[in-house]
Amino acid sequence: MVSENEQKLYDLLEQLGVSYKRYEHPPVYTVDEAKQYWQDIEGAHSKNLFLRNNKGNRHYLVILEESKKADIKDLSAKLAAGKLSFASERRLMEHLGLETGAVSPFGLINDDKNAVTVAIDRDLKKAGTVNFHPNVNTATVSLSFSDFEKFLHHCGNEFILL
Questions:
Q1: pLDDT tens by residue, 130-144
Q2: Rounded Cα–Cα distance for residues 2 and 11 (Å)
């Protein structure tokens, strides 16, 4: 069964002319849990971190290739964001309309104020095909990086490659 938040994404992807494949799997909350379902899904997989600055007035969605370690101190410097830390579940819901375990760039469809800055690992662009949760942690959506960029431009959030 497809949730309303998930269907909203598919409707937008179709409106944008984006080709994608959907893969169902049991709920996963971490990259380690998800790996067992990725063997038949081509392309790069990611870890998605929702962070905030020390003042709580700036929010960042950091998308890293799944095998990379997140160095929050290094990210803080690269983003010139001051001290970064993980944002609360309340902030995740408020800005991206997502629950813990389903953090995904597709949540940007719920960021009407474009308050979240997106930082994307440059290696994901090199992969050609990328995979993300479709706003739920019971499925994975696969699409080309160029179609992903089309989605990002539509959402209007600032995004940078790191």
A1: 999 999 999 999 999
A2: 12
Gap between the Cα atoms of 83 and 75, Å rounded: 9
Q: Quick one: DSSP state of residue 157?
A: -
**What token pair was written down for 140?**
């994975």
- What's the pLDDT tens digit per position in 36-81? 888 889 999 999 999 999 999 999 999 999 999 999 999 999 999 9
Q: What is the DSSP letter of 39?
A: T
What are the chain's domains? 26-161 (3.90.960.10)
* Exposed e or buried b per residue across 82-114, where buried means at least 16 C-beta atoms within 10 angstroms of its C-beta: eebeebeeebbeebbbbbeebbbbbbbbbbeee
**pTM of the model as a whole:** 0.94
